[in-house]
Structure formats: structure tokens, C-alpha cells
Amino acid sequence: MAKYLFKANIFAKLSEIVEADSEKEVWDKIRNRKSFEINQKALQVYPASIEIRKIKEKKEKSNMELKETVELMNSEDYKERFIAEYHQVKIRYEKLKNFCNKIEVEEMLGKEATKHDCPLELLREQQKYMGLYLSVLEKRALIENVVL
After folding, report:
1. How many CA atoms lie within 13 A of 140 on its CB side?
2. Global pTM?
3. C-alpha angle with apex 71: 93 to 131, nearest 5 degrees?
4. pLDDT tens for residues 10-35?
5. Which residues pair with 9 in a beta bridge?
């Protein structure tokens, strides 16, 4: 069964993942569920504020490795290169964050810290700027309608 993301901006921002085999089945589930707090009249009044799109499993993207971004990075389409760049930075950011956390925890517990040539403060500063860069990429993706 495929998963669809239902988004609506009717009186309040609503977003929910719905499991269904088709968009029609998503609409049927939405109309029959009170948790969405949307009635048929609201759907007819604000049809432009409804978005249903098929989504991939989240775990696929979170487990992405650098080597999996190579094909996207070599694409002619700038949006695919943009997606690759985002995932490359995100992968590196997460690895750096985990490394810094590991060093801090080892120091807190009085264990011998994992070998690192660079001062932890400098690594944390790099992590900060990588996080800011990711934030800029995410905002740009929203503006340019790029699904990361």
C-alpha cells in the first residue's frame, strides 16, 4: 500500500500521512475521518488549498549514503543537483554532529576521547555553519518547490 501526504490549509494548517492505494482512496479516507476536521463544503470552497502527493518511505532518504548522490549530482536538471547537494551536506553534518557528541560524552564520562586532531570547539563551529547552510537550502527548496 502506497503512502500519500495530505496537506490542507483550511482554517488551520493540517498535514497527515495517509496509507492508500490511490488518490481517490485518500479522498475517501479524508472525507470519512473527523480528525481532519474538514467537511465536504470546506473542500469545495478551498480546492486550491489541498495537496495530495505520493511519498517515499522516510527511512530511504535518512539512510542515504554519499555514493548514492553521485548520479543526482551529475544530472542536467539543477533541481536534482540541488537535492544531491542537500543530502551530501546533511550526511556530512550528521556524521560530524555524531562525532562531536561522541567526544563530549567520552569526556563527560572520563573515558579516553576518540582521537581527533582538531579542537572540539572548531568542529562544533563547523557543525553550526553546516546547520545554517542546511537551513538556507531547506528555505530555498520551499521557495523553488524542490522536494528534498
Report:
1. 12
2. 0.58
3. 15
4. 444 455 566 677 777 777 776 776 54
5. 13
Question: DSSP states of the chain as a string?
Answer: -EEEEEEEESSSEEEEEEEESSHHHHHHHHHH-GGG---HHHHHH-GGGEEEEEE--HHHHHT--GGGGHHHHT-SSHHHHHHHHHHHHHHHHHHHHHHHHHHHHHHHTTPPPPP-SS-HHHHHHHHHHHHHHHHHHHHHHHHTT---
Backbone angles phi, psi at 134, to 5 degrees: -60, -40
Tell me, what amino acid is at 131?
G
Per the document, the length of the chain is 148
The three cell numbers of residue 134 are 542546511
Quick: pLDDT tens for 29-39.
767 765 455 54
Give CA separation, 110 vs 51, 89, 105, in Å: 52, 31, 8
